Amino acid sequence: MYPDHFIYTKEHEWVSVEEDTGTIGITHHAQSELGDIVYVDLPKIGSTVAQHTTFGSVESVKAVSDIYSPVSGEVVAINDSLSSAPEKLNADPHGDAWLIKVKLSNAAELKGEGMMSAADYSKYVGA
Amino acid sequence: MSEAVSLKATPLNAVHRQLGAKMVDFGGWDMPVQYKGILDEHKAVRTSVGVFDVSHMGEIVVRGLEALALVNLVSTNDASKLKVGQVHYSGLLYEHGGFVDDILVHKVSDDEYFICVNASNQDKDYDHIVANNRFKATVENAGPRYAQIAVQGPKALEVCQKLTATELAPIAYYWFVDGQFANVEARIARTGYTGEDGFEVYVSPEHAVSVWEAILEAGAEFGILPCGLGARNTLRLEAKMALYGHEIDATISPLEAGLGWVVKWDKGDFIGKATLEQQKAAGLTRKLVGFAMIGRGIGRDGYEVEVNGSKAGWVTSGGPAPTLGKNIGLCYLPTEFAVPGQTIHVVIRGLAVEAVTVPTPFYKRAK
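Predict the joint structure of the above. Result:
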């Protein structure tokens, strides 16, 4: 269920790092808890995000949920397809429905407190 | 996830869990918010049929020679106009004109009225009615004697008809009969909280599971879905049906809420009448109005509403309207702005997002 090469947070985001760029999304557990997702609010390319602070929101029919960034850095890409098809977040949260890509400003954050492996995250959500 | 130990459970609680429902604390009750998903459940009710466990709802029975006098004193609608087997929507008010609750009054006989009330208001409603009982009437808090299951949608009639020998088609909207349903005694009312045709079936709690299963089986050919409180909320919002604690509460009068049609001025005295008369004479300062979002975003319950850059009101209920494909809501605004076509802004996480007031209901079923 949870890809091994992702790093997970307690707020149910994931980050997948290639070289100095991290791709960020929400987890399967997060989308399942939210239910039908109808709206995604993402930051602009070129803006900066800080670790464990909110950079956007995901809304289901029922509720709004802030998204917290697992890492700090500059936003280099956003997943535009989600504005017209937010339901992709329910279908493929670990793949097609990534949220943003960030150029990491501090790779050491990945090993910081509260960051979890796939095995630890699975335990955390009781999967 | 918090444990459900302190929450009240309906007789269908285990069935919901078996069906994989997501359970939530709803006013102290452990209730299903969704099974498959709110959008699918919403669509099932609009296009075919859905079934809801609404056993958390309360029931209060008023009996006696002067049952009518008591019902008419505590509620705003005129129960003397009800025929046996008829139902109406009404308000239970405080002297100051705010809502104790909104209720459905069923006339069972000349000396018996069966009142369906909101789950979390049940005890408060009962106390309020008892406190005003200076008549030859008895009041029973009958919630524990009833489970309630709502079958809603254009196919609800066909599904329910398979389960009873009583002919259901002749029962008009807001009428009810007592009869056998899925082999048990039931009160079958053509009422609902979705804006669709349908029935609300009251049975003894020990029969809730067998009746629920019979409905699912009878509805299988129509793709019936069990539906949770999430879909119940999106459905009732599209139909602009009030939700206690949102559109109405102890601080809101029926006139402000657009429910003047359930206030019958010429029926004699009722609790709250004097305040409502004053309000009517002085003119209302605020009114409930519908809106649709224009800018990107969803105006939700409790969000502030601005007109011309100043705080003017608040959203009582808001969210996506699946049938309409729009983001809609209801809000209180000063009377002069509470007319369709007014540009407003809903403050969504610090950002004023454009919306426009619109006529309601947002959705009305084709006859």
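The mean pLDDT of chain B is 97.
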